[in-house]
Amino acid sequence: MVSKFFFIFFLAYYLEPHAVALYGLLTVTVSYSLYALGFDFYTYSTRELLGNVQDQWARLIRDQGVFFALTYILVLPLLALVFFFELLPWFLAPWFFMLVIVEHLSQELNRLLVAISKQLLASVILFLRSGLWAIIAVISFWLFPQTRSLEYALSAWVLGALISCIIGIVALSALERKNLKQSVDWKWIRRGIAVAVPFLIATLSIRGVFTIDRYWVKLIAGQEILASYVLFAGIANAVTSFLDAGVFVFLYPKIVSAFTRKDQKDFVSGMRSLLLQTVLIATLLSLAAAILVHPLLWWLGKDVYSQNVGILYVVLFAIVLYAISMVPHYGLYAMSKDRHIIFSHLVALPLFALSALVFTGFTSVYGIPLALCFVFLAILIYKAIVYQRCKSRLEWASS
Q1: What's the CA gap between 243 and 271, in Å, rounded?
Q2: How many CB atoms lie within 10 A of CB 360?
Q3: Phi-psi region of 154 (alpha: psi -120 to 50; beta: other; left: phi over 0)
Q4: What is the helix (H) or strand (E) element at residue 116, kind and residue range?
Q5: Residues 289, 297: contact at Cβ < 8 Å?
Q6: 173-193 per-residue burial string, b: 16 or more CB within 10 A, e: under 16
């Protein structure tokens, strides 16, 4: 979180607002493309890993890798449409495709390590992929003026993700491999696709909110406001990154495992811990970000950012709502109540579009952040109600 927090500030300090805005658009477009590559197959494979004995893990991971190879062949050419439709300039195309590949591999390796209870190594990989390269880029910007460019920042990003991939692959190579002699289980892959497709559609919908918002801000408010939005959204998203690496990856496998064992006590205890830690940490980090941003904006010395700091407060509130909604989300995921998760995510994008149209009619600067708050509050309320209902039925059934 600290590295991401300061990286976006140094980027805004050393680069012009248009470069910051471009970085923001590239980042969310890469992030969105990962879902098309990954196909949300992890929603199926994670439960399969947790439900199988360890000597089967290498075979399942290999079969998952075969599936990803097919998605690469099909999806990567389609991603070129981003440049044909001029959503991003062509000079970013090589960086885009390199980032999409190494980011996806690193993300999937992180998830696999979490699933096989190597959370600490997974967090190290996440740090290499999301944090260490940013620190190196910042130091280079500070010491070597010739490195102060968007291209240098992107090269550091590619290198950090690539190193994380190498470490993850080495870690997985230690798994028992005797069952790799078995042929690829295409039936298992087809079953996984059937499970993952509804999740993919739902994920593309909710993650579309985190992508379209940048393009919408650019459309209605211009490049400079977009640069401010990118800066403040980057700070807010660091809160989510910290929760992912420091809370969710440690607790949700235990919750899934407890439900699989029908251990109601451990399940309820795990959900309570997840709620308390999420609320406490998200709130404290958001307050710290809201306070620390002011001396950093003074140091930045660019009016375009300090004049729009209110965007940060609204986006932080939206992120806190989103973080809390992940608590009932993981509870529903553990109980295999996938249709409720899918429904809440499916409605996210149309709900965001409608609310954005309403709010931007009143304010071009705060319309999109307010729409985020509305959408994440609606999702939180829905997931919380559904989770409580499902949990009460589970307790009744077990009694």
Answers
A1: 15
A2: 20
A3: alpha
A4: none
A5: no
A6: eebeeeeeeeeeeeebbeebb
Counting the structural domains of the chain, the total is: 1
Between CA 28 and CA 33 the distance in angstroms is 8
CB 334 within 8 A of CB 189: no
CB 17 within 8 A of CB 223: yes
Question: DSSP state, 248?
Answer: I
H or E segment and range at residue 245: none
User: Nearest 5 degrees, angle CA 179-CA 64-CA 257?
Assistant: 80
Rounded to whole angstroms, the Cα distance separating 295 from 5 reads 13
- Within the chain, which residues score under 70 in pLDDT? 1, 5, 394-399
Instruction: For residue 63, give the nearest of 168, 165, 175, 185 by alpha carbon.
Output: 185
Phi, psi (degrees; rounded to nearest 5) at 373: -60, -45
Per-residue pLDDT at 399:
41
DSSP string over 279-342: HHHHHHHHHHHHHHHHHHHHHH--HHHHTTTHHHHHHHHHHHHHHHHHHHHHHHHHTT-HHHHH
Name the nearest CA neighbour of 106 among 175, 34, 173: 34
Instruction: Give the C-alpha separation, 299 to 76, whole Å.
Output: 41
Q: How far is CA 383 from CA 330, 379, 390, 392, in A?
A: 10, 6, 10, 14
DSSP 8-state symbol, 184: P
Contact of 259 with 267, CB cutoff 8 Å: yes
For residue 7, the enclosing domain spans 2-398
Angstrom distance (rounded) from CA 288 to CA 7: 17
Q: 34-72 b/e with 16+ CB inside 10 Å = b?
A: bbbbbbbbbbbbbbbbeeeeeebbbbbbbbbeebbeebe
Residue 1 confidence (pLDDT): 65
Tokens coding 86: 């001029």
Helical ranges in the chain per DSSP H: 2-14, 17-38, 42-50, 57-79, 81-84, 93-115, 119-127, 133-143, 150-172, 186-221, 223-243, 249-260, 264-300, 303-306, 310-334, 338-346, 348-360, 367-398
Whose structure tokens read 């940048």? 214
